[in-house]
Amino acid sequence: MTEETISAEMPYESRFVTVAGSRIHYVEAGEGDPLLFLHGNPTSCYLWRNVMPHLAGEARCVAPDLIGMGRSDKPDLDYRFVDHARYVDGFIEALGLERLTLVLHDWGSALGFHYARRHAANVRGLAFMEALVRPVTWDEWPRTVRPVFEAFRTPQVGWDLVVGQNAFVEQVLPGAMQRRLSDVEMERYREPFREPASRKPVWRWPNEIPIDGEPADMTALVGAYATWLSECDVPKLLLYARPGAILRKELVGWCRAHMRKLTAVDIGPGLHFVQEDRPHAIGAALRTWYRGLPA
Q1: Residues designated as active site
Q2: Which candidate among 93, 126, 169, 285 keeps its CA 20 to 30 Å from the CA of 36?
Q3: What's the CA angle centered on 20, arms 15 and 25, to 5 degrees?
Q4: Distance (Å, whole) CA 203 – CA 194
Q5: If you ran DSSP here, which 8-state letter would residue 211 be given?
Q6: Tell me: the pLDDT tens digits for 197-243?
Q7: How does pLDDT run across 146-185, given as a tens digit for each residue?
Q8: Largest CA distance in the chain
Q9: 243 preceded by a cis bond (ω within 30 of 0)
């Protein structure tokens, strides 16, 4: 496949496992040690559909939908980070995933880093792109989208934008990639959030970002794994795009300066949802790095 051949089809069949009384939807392919692909807001395992085929001959590739997202159940939760972390922990336990390599994006990166800090003995490697690597300031947030994210974090205004108008799915998602999604692709991303009541997780996520010390508990949690990432010897792969969105040149430099055992790979032009712009560059770089991990 060439970089231009980006399929809208999800080539893997749906599977479900029950965690804490709710069904978690996931797909998987291949066999061997597990590669766990974790998505962020407002996506699903569908985001990884063109990346996983590059790794399915190397490992057991597993990609879940976070609770309340994709085709997973939507229980009555606050959908704070700690809620999601509890389900991710339960999912890993339910599937018996050991000797994990985590492939992470957006909020999936925070969930993966948080898991790895607490279960380092079960983690072979960490690969991440457009990730939340440490707490940030508003001055570090992309200027073009700072006003809309400030609005998302404003009570009632943000609720109306995300829940009432579905702005995160309809505007932020397609606006944070370089190519135009097909109707089939856009419909797959809309599917979990057709009703306003289903959009609470999408609203909660921007309110969890640790910016200028708020929320305080998330600033502490992300700060704790940022410190761990700078001290641990777990092999790490940073896949960065140009110019990127939340992981741009300055933060790429921070990762290079602070993270041990880091390999950094330029995957080419891209914004935030790099799997929709550069899936084959991501897949090829992941495969090369994964083959080189210590046994």
Answers
A1: 106, 130, 272
A2: 169
A3: 20
A4: 14
A5: B
A6: 999 999 999 999 999 999 999 999 999 999 999 999 999 999 999 99
A7: 999 999 999 999 999 999 999 999 999 999 999 999 999 9
A8: 51
A9: yes
